[in-house]
Write a structure and sequence with these properties.
Nucleotidyltransferase, domain 5; cytoplasm; EC 2.7.2.1; ATP binding; alpha/beta; six-stranded mixed sheet; single chain; eight-stranded mixed sheet; globular; 14 helices
Amino acid sequence: MNILVINCGSSSLKYQLINMNEEKVYAKGLCERIGIDGSRLKHTPSGKDTIIIEAPMPNHKEAVKMVLDALTHEEYGVVKSMDEISAVGHRVVHGGESFSESVIIDEEVKKAIEACSELAPLHNPPNLIGIEACQHLMPNTPMVAVFDTAFHQTMPNYAYLYAIPYELYEKHKIRRYGFHGTSHKYVAYRAAELLGKPIEELKIVTCHLGNGASVCAVKNGKSVDTSMGFTPLAGLVMGTRCGDIDPAIVTYLQDKENLSAQEVDNLLNKKSGVLGLSGISSDFRDIEDAVKEGNEKAAVTMDVFNYIVAKYVGAYAAAMNGLDAIVFTAGLGENNHEVRRDVCKYLEFLGVKIDEEKNQCRGVERDFSAEGAKIRTLVIPTNEELMIARETKNLLKK
C-alpha cells in the first residue's frame, strides 16, 4: 500500500510517498512560493539527488499536479501511475470538537473543516484547498483527514475548560484544544517501543520544541493535558509567539499603545516570543550564536524558554501523579543538547539524571539517561508524515 501524505501551508506544500508495507519513503518534496513569483518544486526520490523544478504554481491545484507529475515521471518518478497510490493522508490543523480521530473525507467533513477555519485561519483554509485539489486530480482515490487536535480530544473537561462564563464555551466552543497532536502521539508511542513497555502503563511528557512549541502529558497512551490552548499562541515561549501571559496585558497594550485588537493579535503572534524578547531573531540558532558571543539578552531569552519548558514538565508530572519518561523532539528538542541539559537540571528533584556524553547528539534516537535515573530522558526525531500515513492505513483497513 502506497500512501501519499500532503501537508498544505498558505504558500507551500510538503509531501511524502510512503510504502506502508515496509514503511519506506519512496520520495519526498516541497512546493515553495505557491501563488508567488519564483515558485519551485524540490523533489527527492529515495537514494537519489534532489530535482529542482522551477515553474509557475498559481494555486495549490497546480502544485498538486506538479507533485503527481514528479512522482510518475519517467526519469525521476517512483511509481508508474497514480493508480499505484492507494490513498492520500492530509494534515489538517484544527478539527475542533468534531473529530477525535482521523476520518475519511466527504462533503460533511469538508464543511466541518471549513467551520473550524476561524479557529485556525492560517492553516485550515490551505489544508482544505489541498484536499479539494487532490480530489479533483484523483477523484477515485480515498482521502483521509488527520487532525493536529484529534489526539488531545481525550483531555478531561477540567483540563480543557477555561474559567470564563460557561455559556461562552457552549456558544463559541472556547476551550483548550492543543496542537502538534500527530507529533506528540508519534514520539510517545515510539518512546514506549524503545523502553520496551506497553504505552498503556506509561506516564510520558513529550516536548515538541521548535519555532512552534508545545508540551503534552500522555498518560496510558492518551493526551490528558497540553500547553497550547484555544489557539497555538498559548503555552511555551516560541519563535514569534508570546506563550502564556496575563490576559490583562492585551487591553493594557490597546490603551497604552493605542493598538487595535488585530494589532495586538499580530504583536503577540508575530513579534513576540524569542524574537521580541531577544531583539535578535525568531530562529533559535541565531539566539544560540548570540549567547556564545556573550549577548546578555540572548542568554536571558534562552533562560526564560528553558524555565517555562521545565515548569510545564513539572506540572504535568503532578497532573499524571507520576512520570516515567520525558521525550524531546522537533528542531530544537532533537538538535540542541544545551536546551535538553538545562531543562533537565530543573527536574533533578524528580529523579531526572542525564548522561552528558550521551546527550551530545543531534537528530538521532537516543536514551540519554544516566545510570540510576528514575525517569528516562529520550531524544526521538518526530515523524508526523509517517504517523499520518499510519493513521490513513489503519482507517482504510477498518
